[in-house]
Inverse folding.
């Protein structure tokens, strides 16, 4: 009987911990101001806040090369690129270089070669705990002051960003 109670107490404690973690995640807020970050360009060079052109708005897009929503949004971004040519576009992924090249070649040819588009790898896995996205793709448009203008996730993010730009 004592062993059964001990197991029940452990399960109850585990359930409470999981419930608390879930509640914290549900209430997580995206950063209202651009946080410090360090990602890597495909050539291996570090890229951080100091590399951003501060006079422009900055759009972060967290994507996964195998995500269908990300593939659709990349196609859409490529179509409407002219409307975003004055925005820093930072496309961040956890994927490997070969998958990234294939992704752009298939879904957004030439987008990764645009002068204001930078493709970054999150080799240290810091994007998710820092920016707190809820799903792929996640988009964060920050003003030149570093203040968050719009956050979007899933399908339709590019259109939300365009509406925020005007």
């Amino acid at each position: 009987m004592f062993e059964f109670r001990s197991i029940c107490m452990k399960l109850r404690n585990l359930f409470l911990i999981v419930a608390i973690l879930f509640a914290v995640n549900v209430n997580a807020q995206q950063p209202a101001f651009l946080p410090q970050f360090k990602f890597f360009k495909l050539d291996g060079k570090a890229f951080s806040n100091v590399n951003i052109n501060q006079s422009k708005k900055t759009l972060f897009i967290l994507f996964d090369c195998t995500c269908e929503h990300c593939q659709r949004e990349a196609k859409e971004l490529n179509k409407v690129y002219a409307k975003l040519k004055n925005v820093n576009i930072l496309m961040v992924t956890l994927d490997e270089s070969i998958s990234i090249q294939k992704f752009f070649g298939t879904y957004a040819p030439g987008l990764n070669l645009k002068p204001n588009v930078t493709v970054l790898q999150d080799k240290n896995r810091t994007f998710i705990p820092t920016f707190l996205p809820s799903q792929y793709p996640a988009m964060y448009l920050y003003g030149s002051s570093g203040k968050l203008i719009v956050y979007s996730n899933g399908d339709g993010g590019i259109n939300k960003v365009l509406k925020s730009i005007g």
About this structure: Residues 13-27 have pLDDT under 50 and may be disordered. The CA atoms of residues 15 and 21 lie 10 Å apart. The chain is about 35% helix and 20% strand.
